[in-house]
Every structure is written in C-alpha cells, then in structure tokens.
Design a protein that fits this description.
This protein is an all-alpha fold. The protein has 14 helices and no strands. The chain crosses the membrane at residues 9-28, 40-58, 125-144, 150-176, 222-240, 246-267, 274-292, 298-321.
Length: 346
Amino acid sequence: MRGVPGDRRFWLGIGISVFFVALLVRSVDGHELLRAFRGIHAGYVVVAVAVTLLSYLVRALRWKYLLSPLGETRFANLCSATLIGYMANNLLPARLGEFIRAWVLARREEMEPGSVFATLVLDRLADGFTVLLFLLVTLFTLQLPAGSEAVGQGLVIGGYMMLGLYGVVVVALVLLKRKTAASLRFLERLLRPFPARLTERVIPLVGSFLGGVRISPRPREWWAVGCTSVAIWVLAVIPVDLVLRAFGFSFPFAVSLFILVLLVFAVMVPASPGYVGTYHAACVYGLLAFGVPRETALSAAIVIHGINYVPVIAVGIVCLWREGLSLQALRRSGPLSGTGTPSGGK
C-alpha cells in the first residue's frame, strides 16, 4: 500500500472513474434525479441490504468447503475474514482485500497465508464460471429491445473473453500443481539476478500457494461448492430486482440478471476503489436499453452501488475492530507491508 499515490494504475483507475462520472452526470436533470430518489419505496431497499449481507455469509460457507483439504476452520472466523476482505476491497485499490482476507483468516486459524490465498483463487474461479452460467441463462431468456443487438453481441464477446481468461488460469494451476518442484526450480533460476533475500521470501510463499491448490476428494463437497456458488449469485441478483421494484419497475427477473452480468464486466475495468463510475455506467446504460429515464437509471445505479458498498464497509469495520486490527496496522505488519506472516494466534 505504500507508494499508492504514485502508482500509475491507481491514478489510471481514478481517471477512468472521473471520466465515467462526468459522462453520466453531464446531461442529468438534478431536480428529476431528486424526484426519483423521493419516490423510492424504502422497504425494498431494507430487504435488499439484508439479502446482500446474507450473500457474504454464504460466501464464507463456500470458502469453508474450499478450505476443507487444508483442515477444519471455524465459521465465525470465515465470516469475519470475508467481511473484512470485502470491506478492504471497497476502500483500497487493486483488490488488496483478497490478500487481507487470506491474511486475517491465516492469523486466526494459524494457517499458511499462501495456502489460504490459493483457496481464494479457486473461490474466484467458482465465481467466474457461475457468472458465465448466468450469462448463458440471460442470453437464452432475455429478449433485448429492438436496437440493442450490439449489447447482446458485447455480452457474447465478453463471455468468450471471460471463458478464455479463466480457462488459462485453470490450465496454469493444473500445470503448476503437477510440476510443483520443477516450477519452483524454474522460479528460483528467474530470481537469481535479484537479492537472495527476495528469493528466500518468494520461493516459500509460492510453494505455500501451490500447496493450497487442492480439490477435495469428496464429491459431496464439490456439489456443496457448486450449490453455494449458484446461491451466492442468486442472492446478488435479488437486490438488483428489489431496487428496480423500489423505483416502481416490474421487469422480468431476467432483466435484473442482465444488469448483474453488466456489473460483473464493469468491475473488471480499472477504476477507483469501490468501482465508482464504471459500476454506475454499466447499470445506467443497461437500464436505458429498457426505456428507464436517465435520472431514474442513475438514481437506481447509486442505490444498487450503495447497497453493495456501505453495509459491508460498516460491518467489515466492526469485524476489524473485534479482531483487534485496523487498516493502519495491516499496512504496517500485515499483507500490505509484504511480510504476509500470521501473528497474534487464535
């Protein structure tokens, strides 16, 4: 985290966010925007927040199954680490919350951080393939309005790109896992020009990571990972649908699924922490395709983003406090400092 103000990627993300925010607000009528907010049915929003928080608990449950080859873990610790990690993802750049999430759990369960982080790579792969399944369902169930053919083609291209990316990751993990010793020797040769201290830190960390890439031999746990993955993303679609209903729209559920897929693509674009701008643009232009007025579309985008942003930050900060940690402490002695070693025990 040190040196982020000078990080080109950080400032590139800020620039992209500013561009999309400016693009969205340049032709918005402020009075109409406020009127859209005033007409919202708050009850739907409250339920949407509850469903969103529930999805993080299901994420923690799926993580437990992915961690099972490494040993038993306590669900309370998994929930706490998950919420802290997603809170950090919303506040820090470059998805640093993933490292924090692994480090917090490793600290509580006295596990190797590299091995725990490996399970989060599997976690992300499960998310990616589930989203591809949802994209397929969207393409088969949603009738896009006339003139939106380019959007459908864009979704197909994006789906192929995602499939290619995740396919490469899977192949790389399989090859590295099967040739672990050879991979470590090759990495060691690559690091020879660098200081020995770097090699002494990197090689054990990579070895620990590859040791964590394990699939449970029990088919029951494969099914559990699959079912929880579907549940996680169904619980992600429901708040979108509830917010649209809060603004008085009764679109088919497939429209909410369509918006969610667009949001997944949007968060892949470099942006500021919290995906400001890109997230909102995906939601607004998705809703505009279905005839939603621009001001209402933007207000809905702001609410959907807020539901996924504010509650997890609030709960994550509480979990961080209960762990006796702070973001400053993580920068000094945790994963953001490069030590990556668990401390503090259970």
